């Protein structure tokens, strides 16, 4: 029988705590749960009031990996859920609103992915995101070059951008926005991706065509569509090591010179939070939201 722990008055069964989920480092499920408890204070504000889809890997990244968007069977009745619009009709998804629901979800072994809108107002985006994905031999070093161009271009429109690693090989840019539909934000993001390609044609690609990807940075603007989700800040990723989608400073982006220069695993995040706090905290402040031109 799985051991039972109590989190803020909620009883949680935690299973297979000794299972090694990341064989490359021996990182166990117990350590996954410990990681999420450690970063809960900064992670939860970025999940709260956002429908969450889970990328689950209960046997580690080398086992079965699958997306769960609808409320999973067996979800406790105290976990908040909400009906969200979908093209095929409304569906019910999980909201991770507090520490007990975070630890319940972490016990399923998940990456956390969220939309760029809040469930209270799915017709208005509150974030814009760019996913910078390098096609080998391009690396995160090249992503950083593109990120700096996009940062300055967004700033010219009065929008302040922040960066985080994807937790894989790329980089994410995020900014808070207001007063625009997901469709409008998506169109604006595509326009900037096209501009970036014109400005850096040997480096940037705005189309998903895989045959064009080698040696270039694909600026994925499409994740701003209402139905799309992006890996949340601080989520673990299903990779060989317990890599994290970690916020980074612009100084770190500017100084990145190595393909491994911006790579952070779960044990790195405690010290980083001590040093920096939540580098993405401004995204949560309405006063920092920009307006699309």
UniProtKB/TrEMBL annotation:
It comes from the Bacteria. Pfam families: LigD_Prim-Pol (PF21686). Residues 28-279 form the DNA ligase D polymerase domain. InterPro entries: LigD_pol_dom, MtLigD_Pol-like, NHEJ_LigD. GO terms for molecular function: ligase activity. Keywords: Ligase. CDD domains: MtLigD_Pol_like. PANTHER family: BIFUNCTIONAL NON-HOMOLOGOUS END JOINING PROTEIN LIGD. This is Non-homologous end-joining DNA ligase. The lineage of its organism: Bacteria, Bacillati, Actinomycetota, Actinomycetes, Kitasatosporales.
């Amino acid at each position: 029988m799985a051991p039972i722990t109590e989190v803020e008055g909620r009883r949680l069964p935690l299973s297979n705590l000794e299972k090694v989920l990341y064989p490359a480092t021996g990182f166990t499920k117990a350590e996954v749960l410990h990681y999420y408890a450690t970063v809960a204070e900064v992670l939860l504000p970025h999940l709260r009031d956002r429908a969450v889809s889970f990328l689950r890997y209960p046997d580690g990244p080398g086992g079965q990996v699958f997306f769960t968007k609808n409320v999973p069977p067996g979800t406790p009745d105290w976990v908040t859920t909400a009906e969200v619009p979908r093209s095929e009709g409304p569906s019910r998804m999980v909201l991770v609103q507090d520490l007990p629901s975070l630890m319940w979800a972490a016990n399923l072994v998940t990456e956390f992915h969220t939309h760029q809108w809040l469930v209270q107002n799915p017709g208005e985006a509150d974030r814009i995101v760019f996913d910078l994905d390098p096609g080998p031999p391009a690396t995160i070093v090249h992503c950083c070059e593109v990120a700096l161009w996009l940062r300055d271009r967004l700033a010219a429109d009065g929008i302040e951008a922040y960066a985080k690693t994807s937790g894989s090989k790329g980089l994410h840019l995020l900014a808070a926005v207001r007063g625009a539909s997901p469709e409008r934000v998506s169109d604006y993001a595509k326009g900037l991706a096209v501009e970036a390609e014109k400005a850096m044609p040997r480096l940037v690609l705005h189309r998903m065509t895989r045959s064009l990807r080698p040696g270039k940075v694909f600026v994925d603007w499409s994740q701003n569509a209402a139905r799309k989700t992006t890996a949340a800040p601080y989520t673990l990723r299903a990779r060989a090591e317990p890599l994290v989608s970690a916020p980074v400073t612009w100084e770190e982006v500017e100084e990145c010179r190595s393909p491994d220069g911006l790579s952070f695993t779960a044990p790195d995040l405690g010290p980083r939070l001590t040093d920096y706090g939540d580098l993405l905290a401004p995204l949560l402040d309405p006063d920092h939201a920009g307006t699309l031109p």
